[in-house]
UniProtKB/TrEMBL annotation:
Domain of life: Bacteria
Keyword field contains Cell inner membrane: no
InterPro entries: GH (IPR017853), GH13_cat_dom (IPR006047), Glyco_hydro_b (IPR013780)
CDD domains per the UniProt record, alphabetical: AmyAc_euk_bac_CMD_like (cd11353)
Keywords noted in UniProt: Glycosidase, Hydrolase
Species classification: Bacteria, Bacillati, Bacillota, Clostridia, Lachnospirales
Protein name as annotated: Maltodextrin glucosidase
Organism listed in the record: [Ruminococcus] lactaris
Residues covered by the Glycosyl hydrolase family 13 catalytic domain: 10-354
Annotated GO biological process: carbohydrate metabolic process
Length: 442
């Protein structure tokens, strides 16, 4: 699976492109802006972009009206085809948000039920009871997503619904050339639907990636050979920022070992979960950290740990944004152009190092040194061994451990590892204050 070796970049298009929050019905070609960033993303080293909803919707994109038409606030299907061609020309693949659990009240099939009630051929596309009424006084009750009745739950056990959705995915592959899907609220989706989606997509486009949004529970239930290739790793998302804010790196070390460690009971060994430090639903990492010196260190862990790293647009230069109690607008801004800085350069180097390292992409995980303020862990394959060393303290530190032996080069200090002068470990490692080291053992 190509996705396991790449870095992803997530964009929320309605916000990114400066579209109105509510669908005003006024066509505009805003989505072309994503294509304008293609060269920047290619230079950054991004392997694939994840686009949150782009199809015609009532408001925020997750309340879909039409899965076959680009939202008029963003542009046309032809506009998006052009965007995909530009991204692919920079070797950036395209992942779309597959919002298959629910639709908006403006969805064409639901509108038909509102009009015709019992006589609608689409009444079984949803979970409807004509013995009740909705909070919108539709004359029937229906199931909404987690109590949000502006989001009408689809009946994924209805073959007609599944066939319709698969036909839409086929259209996206054929017309836009997309390379995968992010499955919204994958923890809610019918397992048989995900199995059918996996086999269907693989038959049309081998290597088509499926990545699920999962907040909790056992990721193995849906990340397996029959369903999804990956899902969001919220446990380690929390562990990263919390470890730095509490100055307790034992927390992230425990989560990583629990998931990927060498013991038989570790639960996700061999899986490639999607890792992140922020996204369109949570406060940005630059706003949540209490010590801004820890910002590059968060990315040091992100790119060193097992998984598929994903960067949220703007966070690569340290953009801030705080989630509000009643909306996410501050998390989804419009930028006129990229604003790269030293943090961006550092992340670009991390991307470059990771994509050429078998150990960082696919290696085993093992903790070597853990203190409250320092963490050294090992990533290893049969051909490569790398030590990732993080010092979150404002003071230099010398780590001591019998395993810190042998010659190495620090991959983050040199553009070409073959030109680096090897250093030697003799049971100790010097860790400068606020530092990240990726030590390739020779």
């Amino acid at each position: 699976m190509w996705a396991y070796n790449e870095t992803f970049y997530q964009i929320y298009p309605i916000g990114f492109c400066g579209a109105p929050v509510h669908n005003d019905g006024v066509p505009a070609h805003r989505i072309l802006k994503i294509g304008d960033w293609a060269e920047y993303l290619g230079n950054l080293g991004i392997g694939s972009i994840i686009l949150n909803p782009i199809f015609e919707s009532d408001n925020h994109g997750y309340d879909t009206r039409d899965f076959r038409k680009i939202d008029c606030r963003l542009g046309t299907n032809e506009d998006f085809s052009e965007v995909c061609k530009k991204l692919h020309s920079q070797n950036v693949k395209v992942i779309l948000d597959g919002v298959f659990n629910h639709v908006g009240r403006g969805f064409w099939a639901f509108r038909d039920v509102q009009e015709k009630k019992w006589d609608s051929p689409y009444k079984d596309w949803f979970h409807i009871s004509f013995d009740g009424n909705s909070c919108y006084n539709d004359g029937f009750w229906y199931e909404g997503w987690e109590g949000h009745f502006e989001l009408v739950k689809l009946n994924l056990q209805n073959p007609a619904v599944v066939d319709y959705l698969l036909d839409c995915v086929k259209l996206w592959i054929e017309d836009f050339g997309i390379d995968g899907l992010r499955l919204d609220v994958a923890y809610c989706l019918d397992h048989n639907f995900m199995k059918r989606l996996r086999s269907f997509c693989e038959s049309i486009k081998p290597g088509f990636a499926l990545i699920g949004e999962v907040l909790f529970g056992d990721y193995n239930l849906i990340v397996n050979d029959e369903m999804l290739h990956s899902c969001t790793n919220y446990e380690c998302y929390k562990g990263i920022y919390s470890s730095f804010n509490s100055m307790n790196l034992f927390e992230i070390a425990h989560s990583l070992n629990r998931q990927f460690g060498p013991e038989q009971w570790c639960i996700y060994r061999g899986k490639h979960l999607m890792t992140f430090v922020d996204n369109h639903d949570v406060t940005r990492i630059a706003s949540i950290l209490t010590n801004k010196n820890h910002l590059p260190l968060c990315y040091g862990i992100l790119f060193g740990m097992p998984g598929i790293p994903c960067i949220y647009y703007g966070s690569e230069w340290g953009e801030e944004g705080v989630k509000a109690p009643d909306n996410d607008y501050a998390l989804r801004p419009c930028f006129d152009a990229p604003k790269p800085n030293e943090l961006t350069d550092f992340i670009s180097r991390l991307i470059e190092v990771r994509c050429t390292s078998d150990a960082l992409c696919n290696g085993s995980y093992r903790n070597v040194v853990i203190t409250n303020h320092q963490l050294i862990f090992e990533r290893r394959t049969e051909t490569e061994r790398i030590l990732v060393a993080i010092n979150a303290s404002d003071s230099d530190f010398t780590a001591g451990n019998g395993e810190l032996q042998g010659s190495y080069i620090d991959l983050l200090k040199t553009g070409d590892s073959s030109e680096a002068a090897p250093q030697t470990l003799n049971g100790q490692l010097s860790m400068p204050a606020y530092s990240v080291q990726y030590l390739k053992m020779l």
